[in-house]
Amino acid sequence: MTYFNKDYHPPGTEPGTLVERDGAATAATLRITGIGSGKTIDKQIATPEECREYLQPPGIWIQVHGKPDPALLQRLGEVLELHPLAMEDVLNAGQRPKIDVFDDHLFVIMNLPVMNDGRISVYQVSLFCGQHYLVSLHEAPGDLFSRVHKRLLESNGRFGARGTDYLLYALIDVVIDTAFPVLERFGEELEELETELLDAPSRKTLVTIHRTRRELVMLRRMLWPQREVVNSLLRDEHPLIDAGTYIYLRDCYDHAVQIIELLETYRDTLTSMLDVYISSISNRTNDIMRVLTIIATIFIPLTFVVGVYGMNFGNNSHSPWAMPELNWYYGYPLIWAVMIAVAIGLLWYFRRKKWL
Amino acid sequence: MTYFNKDYHPPGTEPGTLVERDGAATAATLRITGIGSGKTIDKQIATPEECREYLQPPGIWIQVHGKPDPALLQRLGEVLELHPLAMEDVLNAGQRPKIDVFDDHLFVIMNLPVMNDGRISVYQVSLFCGQHYLVSLHEAPGDLFSRVHKRLLESNGRFGARGTDYLLYALIDVVIDTAFPVLERFGEELEELETELLDAPSRKTLVTIHRTRRELVMLRRMLWPQREVVNSLLRDEHPLIDAGTYIYLRDCYDHAVQIIELLETYRDTLTSMLDVYISSISNRTNDIMRVLTIIATIFIPLTFVVGVYGMNFGNNSHSPWAMPELNWYYGYPLIWAVMIAVAIGLLWYFRRKKWL
Amino acid sequence: MTYFNKDYHPPGTEPGTLVERDGAATAATLRITGIGSGKTIDKQIATPEECREYLQPPGIWIQVHGKPDPALLQRLGEVLELHPLAMEDVLNAGQRPKIDVFDDHLFVIMNLPVMNDGRISVYQVSLFCGQHYLVSLHEAPGDLFSRVHKRLLESNGRFGARGTDYLLYALIDVVIDTAFPVLERFGEELEELETELLDAPSRKTLVTIHRTRRELVMLRRMLWPQREVVNSLLRDEHPLIDAGTYIYLRDCYDHAVQIIELLETYRDTLTSMLDVYISSISNRTNDIMRVLTIIATIFIPLTFVVGVYGMNFGNNSHSPWAMPELNWYYGYPLIWAVMIAVAIGLLWYFRRKKWL
Amino acid sequence: MTYFNKDYHPPGTEPGTLVERDGAATAATLRITGIGSGKTIDKQIATPEECREYLQPPGIWIQVHGKPDPALLQRLGEVLELHPLAMEDVLNAGQRPKIDVFDDHLFVIMNLPVMNDGRISVYQVSLFCGQHYLVSLHEAPGDLFSRVHKRLLESNGRFGARGTDYLLYALIDVVIDTAFPVLERFGEELEELETELLDAPSRKTLVTIHRTRRELVMLRRMLWPQREVVNSLLRDEHPLIDAGTYIYLRDCYDHAVQIIELLETYRDTLTSMLDVYISSISNRTNDIMRVLTIIATIFIPLTFVVGVYGMNFGNNSHSPWAMPELNWYYGYPLIWAVMIAVAIGLLWYFRRKKWL
Amino acid sequence: MTYFNKDYHPPGTEPGTLVERDGAATAATLRITGIGSGKTIDKQIATPEECREYLQPPGIWIQVHGKPDPALLQRLGEVLELHPLAMEDVLNAGQRPKIDVFDDHLFVIMNLPVMNDGRISVYQVSLFCGQHYLVSLHEAPGDLFSRVHKRLLESNGRFGARGTDYLLYALIDVVIDTAFPVLERFGEELEELETELLDAPSRKTLVTIHRTRRELVMLRRMLWPQREVVNSLLRDEHPLIDAGTYIYLRDCYDHAVQIIELLETYRDTLTSMLDVYISSISNRTNDIMRVLTIIATIFIPLTFVVGVYGMNFGNNSHSPWAMPELNWYYGYPLIWAVMIAVAIGLLWYFRRKKWL
Prior knowledge:
Chain A has helices at about 70-80, 85-90, 145-155, 160, 165-175, 180-200, 205-235, 245-310, 330-350, and strands spanning about 30-35, 40-45, 60-65, 100, 105-115, 120-130, 135-140. Chain A has about 350 residues and is α+β, with helices and mostly antiparallel strands.
């Protein structure tokens, strides 16, 4: 996850321009599923134009999976009469989650966090919800909506009878809830990090704290507006959204808020961890300094003392002032006694200072 | 209290799904208490269906204590006609406090902080308030609502006459006020921590500051929305809430706000304590360095001096330049005088620098 | 001022319960003062019931000073028909400032900061304002409202003619303005602290910064809601508050805001002071290290040099390689020349590095 | 600029009391200027009563410059029928900027920052705007409003024709815009400070950062509410303010906002500078430690080696084990070779660690 | 980019004064382009008066590029009847982005960030949008609006048919989107900075972190209000803005918000980087200290030991107490054994403490 991850056209480009991006398009797959009861359609299609015949009650769900090429998007937009600006936002990934209300359809952008080998990536999920169709477009690996797809097929029409707005809710719910396992993983990482921090902080701990904090800050930026998207669905009474769907969206909203609050708590904790790290390092420097100081402070005076009696004054015994100690009978034991006394005195001093 | 403590279904699961959780269900007890006057019912029941006959004025209070199994919850939901989404929230603990308004009942989730052996845990308390029933579900140890239960039984009908909304208030009040002893305990811990911090900060102090701060950050996240829950009861004029209950709820609201403000104050103080800790450690490093520097700075030059006269130049007295000092009559005392002068000079210098 | 300073009943206690607190009640004094013109009443009374006859125009001011016992409060509440919940808030000190609107009276709680010997304490002031009475209850030492009392008596009826709402304003004004001398005192402390911090920071400075910051954080928590209380009086058009009193309350509101802003400024400054403290300590460690490094770095090589010539190789003159320097005619002066050169070189190096 | 700079009466003093302040009143000058066209009045007056005759269309501007004595203020208030509370606010300097709306006039308090010899001071400017008069009172040195005065006199009535509200705008505009040169000066100081910080941080840098930050925090507190004052003039549609003046006030509002934003940016930058300062000091300590460590680590082992051969074991050649090295033919060069090898090895080690 | 970058007149200058600025005017070029279909005008003009004939449907776009002299601005203002206050804001660069609504035209100020050789500068772009004209004025190098100009000319009237409001949108869109490449560049710098910080932090890293943070803080201040400008266009239903343009402005608004959020994320990250930097430096000091401590702590006792046997007590063998060790047969090897044992013991101690 890089700091800047938005695709954009050169400033001044005509709005709604669909241009091939660098990481060229892969073959996107299109799948349509009828939302009606009884024997419904559920098949892969090759061209967007094949949808046209199903754009009537009970309606269909069009899943586009993969990085579609601009031409495909343009044709899809023409079939469903979607606004070019919206199609541009689908193509230029890295948008903010948002909801755009058009005359006869809603356009919702969500961000899907995916954790892969401990590193996080975020995929854009675009949803168009009309009276008789719901289009979902995303490039995330794996079959993101498989459970919803299965529920739709197995519900024997009960699911579809609730309309495209309920399907829209179901997909938004999947995208929002996908953050929970990611946050659970983060939570576990934080627990480990904290243990490491408090037990044996190392340079690696610092790097991990910084990297995790960075990921959380960026994740927060990308998930924060999702709360507002769901809130807008709840609050603005869009004619496409049935009153019965509100209770489900409220549940969704609660989850979106809970995710934001968890992210905030995590970030706050990581900021505090950085301070604890600095404290720990200071503590260790302190410990190291204490050992050095104790050893040095004890031995430096002793070394001076032994140095004194290493002087060569006494060699030339021409003067009674010249190191008479060397000639004392108990000179050597005495000097040891003095040195031991100094050492014990210093040790007592350090103990009183609580350095030992 | 782990960083992530929410139960959740895999994304895409049908809303309202009730599935057995890991920490399997224990036998939950159901108790019903009539809220009318005179001789009221008050007994443990075995199956939710037994409530059915009492779902009429004056109404009953159904207490579910313990971790109920999904089947029990489902049957309870069916008897009282509760929404499956709400039942899912009861089962999946770790929700945000919230209030959901249904056509004929209110669903309230609160968080109950409990301090046990100095470690905090948070239990979810779920409340359903209908015209003629109030259901409380929680897993907290001990008999949380015993005082309210006693007041209800002993009030000779006066309590119950105020309706299920007053009972709802009484239970919410218990849950909110339970934070006070917890915060009082935290306050005492902070006092102790502060004394330790200012008197004799140790590595343990750092760990305690961090752990306490973490607990406060998470507690704040879990209690913060309770203010909004009570405010919603006050503000939104739910038909189930009688005007006479408002004055009590306002009292509740004041307590919820006071708890949040205390938590904020505590957190702010702990953040400041971390800075004080770093300062203290720096101060101690400073003290240690000063001792080392004074000792080393005094003795290093002296050791050099005695080293000079330990050189063997004078042994070979072939040159008048070869350490004539060794042969001076007062050479040895002189060298001591020089060394004492150097030491005194340095001590004077350190005193002037206020290091002594 | 402890971190937790609220009196509370065990969770689940019936609302409005009045129970003796630990620090048992002292004899509270009751004083009533008529607010009408001419010869008005102004005397101490023994029982609340004595008020009853004056509860009519022009009305009276009932001052309760000291820690009243629950029984007294209960009887006072009965005489004036005050709500038990309000009486409970009067008894259980440590409430948040708030305003409660009842049908025929207002209940206001304010916090009064008092500085005593450099330590701050906060007293709760409770005010009930009805059509014909105003009750003030507080335990603060000294005669808090003496000036207002004197103005009321000396105004010859002009003061009282403005009604109990003007008296309410006058008392609120006293409570709010009492923060100014406290903040002035804090301001002076900050000036002193700053001088100390920038001139000669010591461990005591750190303790004082932390203690002052703690007091400000807690004071802020206790005074912050007062702004909202006054704002509510201004905004909500209570029937008891006369339009002519608004201009005075607006003045009060300005003061409340100014106090909050001063507290914020002080707190911000203290946070910054902690950083400056850390910087100062780092600076001193730096100075100390520099002295050690200069002395050690100069003498360590010199000590090595003199150590070299203290080796006993030259004693046994069996080899021309064995320290011939010892036998050079100018050996000893030469070694001094070398050592002085080394020392000067190092001093030059340190000066270039700006360490000297 | 001290931390606490508000004049206030003892709590409980009657509102509207005008009492002589400590720093007794200097002779304030009163000047009246007609705002009509043609030959208008423009003279100093001795008593407020002289204004009375001009209180009619087209109106006058009364400038009070200096610290007026209470009696003068009282008489001015009586002549113009100003509220005693407002007069008290004029006398007690150190108010928050605010706007008070009275029946027939507006009362505006602004704060004027003045930089003098690099130190900032803030003066209160009080403005009363009625239908036919505008009173300005301030104690700032110099002739603050000279340009407006000149424009008024030279406009040949065009200025005055726009009414007292336009004059009010013009004066508010002067007060607000006076912050720009002050902020420009601060900006230059920050540039210098930053250069100093990044090139050669010293103890003085720390003191300057703290002092500048303190000044900004306090300036922000005193200027922040000015935005709200101008916004209130724009938003609340006071009858005294003509619609044509709005566009000018909007310009004023933009400036007030820009000043606040600049102050915030400066403060944020200074907070960051404190961190950079700590980093710089740590960096320097690091550099110093590195030099000490390199020197000490190289010479300490060498000094040990030479110490070994200074031992007197070899003197008594009674044992072949007693320092035979001393008698080796190449003993002395060999020991040098060993020591040089150790030194080179350590240097290589330090270079690999990037300490050299 | 200096801290203070606003041009302003001396306080008290008449509003709307146009005065030559220091960095005198360069020859500004004027270009007019018809927005109608068919053969439209597109030429450079010499005087503003030449515009007059085109001020009718379909309207023209007047581009002023460069630093215009006051006289030119005044004449342009007279031709188009623009307000002098607006012209003053055009001349005095460094304004806050804002929108001013006049009776028959809108005045919009935007800020254009341009990155040049890694250093950022911000240019003011002023836009006037009337019924039949749109004026754009800016001094940014390069042909900022060339793409829009080309689209206008090549659209064969379709572009122009949407009116001046669509042209206004197109230009605002260019200005806002120009921040994307700048932020992309910043993002890359942050990536590099982070790598440097975590791998090999140096003094240069600190300077870069501070400088980048400073630029971001100032950029944020200058771009932040743009969101509000676009929001005002969306929200306030200006009669000049056609409903069909709203969808495009909404897109613009999304981009403005995304830019602000990116800036916030970057700033937050840089603040955290400063902490990481301090930690890294502490870590390195720690490493250095550890090496010093290990070496010193091992050799200081050994040096003491060898110092002991360098004392001259044994030289004068008058006493059996005088260093008999020197005469032991295995004295020298024994002393080595002791010293090696001490060294190994200390190494073992350091390893247990995890310093090795």
